[in-house]
Specification:
Oligomer: single chain
Strand order of the largest sheet: 1-7-6-2-5-3-4
Structural class: alpha/beta
Largest sheet: 7 strands, mixed
CATH topology: Glycerol-3-phosphate (1)-acyltransferase
CATH superfamily: Glycerol-3-phosphate (1)-acyltransferase
Number of domains: 1
Number of helices: 8
Distance between the termini: 37 Å
């Protein structure tokens, strides 16, 4: 067992229960995440609680991608690196981050990207940046879209309802590896995340029944 695998094993017994305690959530469609092989999880982003939520909801360990500033925060940086989080410099070409993402995906791992690039303060999913599409196309792996709803209203102690909806894996084998292919794939990812998020809004309006399958 690697050090990252050990961190995830320990996290399943510590961080996961704590996350469920402070941010109880419904998890719809997690069985759609392939149980083996490389893939990219493409997630919308509202709150700092989103990464531990996705980690708690995922059946598999995830190599998250986080801005390098988070890695420089004392304590937090050491923690997220222990879980295999990849540092990326936003707003510039970061070849080392791309290399690590491709290495993880090609090696059969799960790469987790909050695809808008930053938190969305308007409370609705935003524009998808090309990172997830680029990794998927270059590594030849599928993208699993994942929508989160509720964390835009969540604060510690307010118990606002939170839900996650997993989409079906999407492959982009017919698209070129380049700008045009990345843009087209990103557009498809954006539409799917928004479709899942709209479904979650309806589900929240119905009281978040258990056992539903996302569309």
């Amino acid at each position: 067992m690697t050090s990252v695998e050990l961190s995830w094993a320990v996290g399943r017994r510590t961080i996961q229960p704590l996350t469920k305690l402070v941010a109880p959530f419904r998890n719809y469609g997690a069985e759609r995440l392939p149980r083996e092989g490389g893939c990219v999880i493409a997630v919308n982003h509202f709150s700092w609680i989103d990464p531990p939520l996705v980690g708690a909801a995922s059946p598999r360990p995830i190599s998250f991608v986080a801005k390098i500033e988070a890695h420089r925060v004392p304590g937090l940086g050491q923690l997220i690196r222990a879980f295999g989080t990849i540092a990326v410099r936003r707003g510039e070409s970061d070849r080392e981050a791309v290399r690590q993402m491709l290495e993880a995906a090609r090696g059969g791992g799960v790469v987790g990207l909050f695809v808008e690039g930053t938190r969305q303060h308007a409370g609705i999913p935003g524009t998808v940046q090309p990172g997830a599409a680029m990794v998927a196309l270059q590594a030849g792996v599928p993208v699993v879209p994942l929508a989160i709803n509720g964390t835009q209203h969540w604060r510690l102690g307010n118990w606002k309802p939170i839900s996650l909806a997993w989409g079906r894996p999407i492959r982009f084998d017919g698209l070129p590896r380049g700008g045009r292919g990345y843009r087209e794939a990103s557009g498809q990812i954006e539409l799917e995340i928004r479709r899942l998020w709209d479904w979650l809004v309806e589900v929240h309006g119905e009281g978040r029944p258990k056992g539903l399958t996302p569309p």
